[in-house]
Design a protein that fits this description.
The complex is a heterotetramer of chains A (241), B (295), C (290) and D (126).
Chain A: E1 4-13, E2 16-26, E3 31-35, H1 42-50, E4 57-62, E5 65-66, H2 72-77, E6 80-83, H3 95-102, H4 112-122, H5 124-128, H6 139-151, E7 157-161, H7 169-184, E8 188-192, H8 196-202, E9 205-210, E10 213-218, H9 225-234
Parallel strand pairs in A: 3-8, 3-9, 6-7, 7-8
Antiparallel strand pairs in A: 1-2, 1-4, 4-5, 9-10
Helix pairs in contact in A: 3-6
Chain B: H1 3-27, H2 35-52, H3 57-79, H4 84-104, E1 109-111, E2 114-118, E3 124-125, H5 129-132, H6 137-160, H7 162-172, H8 174-179, H9 184-210, H10 220-233, H11 239-253, H12 262-276, H13 284-294
Antiparallel strand pairs in B: 1-2, 2-3
Helix pairs in contact in B: 1-6, 1-9, 1-10, 1-11, 2-3, 2-4, 2-9, 3-9, 6-7, 10-11
Chain C: H1 2-33, H2 40-57, H3 62-85, H4 93-114, E1 120-121, E2 131-133, E3 136-138, H5 140-162, H6 164-174, H7 176-181, H8 186-212, E4 214-215, H9 219-233, H10 239-260, H11 262-278, H12 282-285
Antiparallel strand pairs in C: 1-4, 2-3
The chains are: A alpha/beta (241), B mainly alpha (295), C mainly alpha (290), D mainly beta (126).
Chain lengths: 241, 295, 290, 126
């Protein structure tokens, strides 16, 4: 049985359907990656999984339980955390406060300081800047903070929406190093990426999405990389230039 | 028709002018807390012209409308780039300033052996043009009604024209409108001037209907009421604001069932209507449905 | 001359402290909901009327009256939240604001139904003579008002910056979507923020009526207008800004009233707001308000 | 003596300046029923009692004058010349703008401000 199972999900903004019946699966313990051109509906899918958007129809089953249409905090409580696109840290709050916010709904307050220490060990830069306002961090540091904040809820499934967006190549390398580390430590990861090259290096399985629908599903070796990249950036139905 | 019915109908028509001015701004995407100021400008200007300078009412009304248009244009000029609550608060600040200026205004002259004209917080008594010219209440209701019908016809014409579509476009998404080459600033300034003229027309007619005005008539209560009438009536058609006024003054006020509880009933009704219809009873979808049904 | 200046400053600060409380209540609600609650003042008036009614019919001590005022304001605030803001979450801001205005009408009519006289006496905070210090007179109740307002500000600061609930409120003000993603139960925080804001408003309302010794139905409009004005002056949505805006409004009013009279006092306050808005001064327009 | 004469003249000035606009004075007493008042009205014109007018008495709240209005009552002529009587049913205590609509020999609309309390009405002082 798969860990996360998405069946025929339709999400609409008013009358415009951004997801037109999406179905996919994420296996426990794996890194699954979702690729596709801008406007394919990748972020809409992530927001729907996290409960920010309410699907019009379809089902989302996580660890055997239906979570479609539940409130975001209830989904976090069940062990699904999203690192949102553009990071969305709390800019006027300190780094430490941002991490406490991530642990907001946890009942076991005693273990929070220990988790923060572990996060600092994983992200030493954040430790240096613990008392600094999050808005003053660099883009890469903010991305690390967003990941750390999501991990503070002790998720079983980590959703990441374009973690490399707008970051310098060296920082992107570091982000992907962290992704593989988290995977090695047993976190299941579902990743949306524009950077198909990097994503295919870390993922065990990938999906291609175009115009609100999944158009391809396979292992990284199942399709030539340049074909994947072409379709991820441009879509399969190319219009004449 | 008895006097009371005539009075209620006249009040409905008078309120409709200021509700329509709030509606006009709402469809262009701006929420004003300050339409009472231009209603007041019209009332004072019209009253001064007919009482102190013996102008005929029609001419005074035109002058008051021009003044109202200029006043709201001048208020809009520096504030149009503000959005949402910022714009609403700027209009409220302007309106409260206007009200205080009415309080400070003492402009009295001896007319026919009596002091007449605005006297600060004591108000402005004796705006008696319609009595001096022997206009009966029923006739005055007729005049106000015809003017309102003309304004409504103008609204309906504009809403069916390209200008109407442009207005709604600016209201729904100013960035998108700007990107297709619409001069959003100019449209909004035009809307502001028109709204000011409309409110001022209501004010002139109100002052002459009531013969007496005072600064307190033009406080935030009047402005927010007109906003509420426009919104609960519906943003889909110019009949919306009328429906809003009719609902409050027409049904609740004149049927005396809710004597003493009227605002409790009306307040609850408005809040509940907005839960199910956030853009009012006659919203765009309903209006479209009605049009398809009956055309 | 100097004595006047000092005296006005003292008076201005104590009035400004209540404005700051009103502005804080407004800002909390605006910050998390991005909507202005026009019924904020009338809900406070409802609390004050509940206390006055108790006082007139049964007589009650100052502390009990304060308690009734605050609970009345919280109760009224909860009603406003349920009917005007919970249904429009993520929906139309104008509809929510107009709905809150509709409830304002209800509160006003309710107040005059229960207590039909225009004016009622309210027990004074302090009835003795003012304290004379050299050339200055210090009104004891003004000092008490200032002290109570400062205490309420401190309590609010502690709640917002030292508690888990405060963390959630600040997160919601800064990034509503990220707050939900961090596992914060957003609707529940809204409800509690409303209660907190109404309680703060209740404290402010109590201080105002107890220092003036009287109450009229105009209190509702007064509190809404002063709170909105102070909030806007301090920059929409900033908590420290609300305190600064409130104190600034109090000081400006005290000085202009002394030198120019009450009408000029209000005129200048509104003129200042208009000019600052029109000039789009940075602290006022950095946060978008839709 | 001269001062007193001057005072008398000043006091009399408004009377002398009396123009065609009628003047009205109002006295109201509570009927004992909440917000219901018996009112007596004295109408004068050119300083003399105004007789034979048809008077309708209405009331408005000064803020929101068009909304909070009270159904007007037709006044009955009283015992003395220029006197009229009407019963007013208001919605609440406080300040009301009393509107007198005159028909008959004179057509006019007069607006008076009175403060209503549980006993009766007093002219607004401001």
């Amino acid at each position: 049985m798969s860990f996360l199972e998405v069946r025929d999900v339709v999400t609409a903004y008013g009358k415009i359907e951004a997801l037109k019946g999406v179905s996919l699966e994420v296996a426990e313990g794996a890194i699954t990656c979702l690729l596709g051109p801008n406007g394919a509906g990748k972020t809409t899918l992530m927001m729907t999984l996290a409960g920010i958007l309410r699907p019009k129809q379809g089902s989302i089953v996580f660890a055997g339980e239906e979570i479609a249409g539940r409130a975001p905090h209830a989904i976090v409580a069940r062990g699904v955390a999203l690192v949102p696109e553009n990071r969305l840290v709390f800019p006027a709050m300190t780094v430490l406060e941002n991490m406490h916010a991530g642990a907001y709904q946890r009942g076991d307050k005693k273990t929070v300081p220990g988790d923060i220490e572990r996060m600092f060990a994983r992200f030493p830069r954040l430790k240096e800047r613990a008392a600094q306002q999050a808005g003053t961090l660099s883009g890469g540091e903010q991305q690390m903070l967003a990941v750390a904040r999501a991990l503070m809820s002790r998720p079983k499934l980590l959703l990441m929406d374009e973690p490399s967006l707008g970051l310098a190549p060296l920082v992107v390398e570091e982000i992907f190093r962290i992704v593989t580390e988290l995977h090695r430590d047993g976190t299941t990861i579902f990743l949306v990426e524009q950077n198909a090259h990097m994503a295919l290096r870390v993922a065990q399985h990938f999906y291609l999405m175009e115009q609100g629908k999944v158009t391809f599903s396979g292992d990284p070796g199942s399709l030539a990389e340049d074909e994947v990249i072409r379709r991820a950036y441009l879509g399969s139905a190319q219009r004449p230039a | 028709m008895d006097d009371y019915a005539i009075g209620v109908l006249t009040n409905i028509a008078l309120f409709s002018f200021i509700a329509l001015s709030a509606y006009l701004l709402l469809i262009a995407g701006e929420m004003s807390f300050g339409q009472q100021a231009f209603f007041g400008v019209g009332a004072y200007a019209g009253g001064i012209l007919t009482t102190l300078y013996a102008w005929p009412l029609p001419l005074a009304a035109l002058a008051a409308m021009a003044l109202g248009a200029v006043a709201q244009f001048l208020v809009a000029l520096p504030t149009l780039r503000l959005r949402g609550l910022h714009f609403a608060m700027a209009t409220l600040a302007a309106a409260e300033m206007a009200r205080i200026l009415f309080e400070l205004m003492h402009w009295r002259r001896e007319i026919d052996g009596e002091l007449a004209g605005p006297d600060g917080t004591q108000g402005f008594r004796g705006i008696r043009w319609i009595f001096e010219h022997g206009i009966e209440p029923l006739h005055y209701l007729g005049i106000v009604g015809v003017l309102l019908a003309l304004v409504l016809a103008l609204f309906l014409m504009i809403e069916r024209s390209k200008l109407g579509a442009t207005l709604r476009g600016v209201g729904l998404d100013p960035e998108l409108a700007a990107s297709v080459g619409i001069d959003v600033q100019r449209i909004k300034l035009g809307v502001a001037a028109a709204a000011g003229a409309l409110a001022a027309l209501g004010g002139v007619l109100y002052a002459h209907h009531n013969t007496y005005i005072e600064p307190r008539n033009f406080d935030i209560m009047l402005g927010v009421h007109s906003l509420a009438y426009a919104l609960i009536g519906g943003l889909g058609t110019a009949f919306g604001p009328l429906l809003g006024v009719l609902l409050d003054i027409g049904t609740l006020e004149s049927t005396r069932v809710f004597h003493g509880y009227r605002m409790i009933v009306f307040g609850g009704l408005v809040a509940l209507v907005l839960v199910y219809r956030p853009r009012g009873l006659l919203d765009e979808r309903t209006v479209q449905w009605l049009r398809q049904r009956f055309s | 001359m100097i004595a006047d200046l000092v005296q006005n400053t003292l008076d201005g600060l104590s009035a400004g402290a209540t404005y700051a409380l009103l502005a804080l209540g407004f800002t909390l609600i605006f910050g998390v909901l991005r909507r202005a609650n026009l019924s904020f003042g009338p809900a406070i008036m409802f609390g004050c009327y509940a206390a006055t009614w108790t006082h007139v019919n049964f007589g009650a001590g100052l502390l009990l009256l304060a308690l009734i005022t605050v609970s009345g304001a919280v109760l009224a605030g909860a009603y406003v939240e349920r009917l005007c803001f919970a249904p429009h979450r993520g929906g139309s801001a104008i509809a929510a604001m107009v709905a809150s205005f509709a409830l304002w009408m209800q509160f006003e009519e309710l107040a005059t139904l229960i207590m039909p006289r225009h004016l009622y006496a309210f027990p004074l905070l302090y009835e003795g003579d003012p304290l004379a210090l050299g050339p200055f007179t210090l009104r004891i109740d003004a000092l008490a008002m200032l002290g109570a307002a400062l205490a309420a500000c401190l309590a609010l600061w502690w709640t917002l910056y030292r508690t888990r609930f405060g963390l959630a409120v600040r997160a919601l003000i800064e990034q509503p979507a990220a707050a939900a993603l961090a596992g914060i139960n957003v609707p529940w925080v809204f409800v509690r923020v409303f209660a907190l804001a109404s309680a703060i408003g209740g404290v402010a309302g109590y201080l105002v009526v107890a220092s003036h010794g009287q109450i009229t139905p105009m209190l509702g409009m007064w509190a809404t207008l002063k709170g909105l004005l102070a909030m806007m002056l301090g920059g929409l949505g900033s908590l420290p800004g609300a305190v600064i805006g409130g104190l600034a409004l109090g000081l400006i009013e005290a000085h202009t009233q002394w030198y120019l009279g009450p009408q000029m006092r209000d005129l200048i306050a509104y003129l200042l707001l208009f000019v600052l808005l029109a000039a789009r001064v940075p602290w006022m327009t950095t946060r978008s308000a839709s | 003596m001269a001062k007193a004469a001057l005072l008398l003249i000043v006091l009399a000035l408004p009377l002398l300046a009396q123009a065609q606009t009628p003047e009205a004075q109002l006295r109201c007493e509570s009927t004992g029923q909440d917000f219901v008042y018996d009112c007596t009205l004295m109408l004068t014109r050119f300083g003399r009692p105004l007789e034979g007018a048809q008077v309708t008495v209405g009331a408005d709240m000064p803020s929101m004058p068009m909304a909070h209005s009270v159904r007007p009552a037709r006044a009955r002529p009283g015992l003395k010349p220029g006197e009229y009587k009407a019963r007013l049913d208001l919605e609440m205590l406080g300040e009301w703008a009393i509107k007198l609509r005159l028909d008959g020999p004179v057509r006019d609309l007069l607006v008076l401000h009175y403060e209503f309390d549980s006993k009766g009405a007093m002219p607004r002082k401001r």
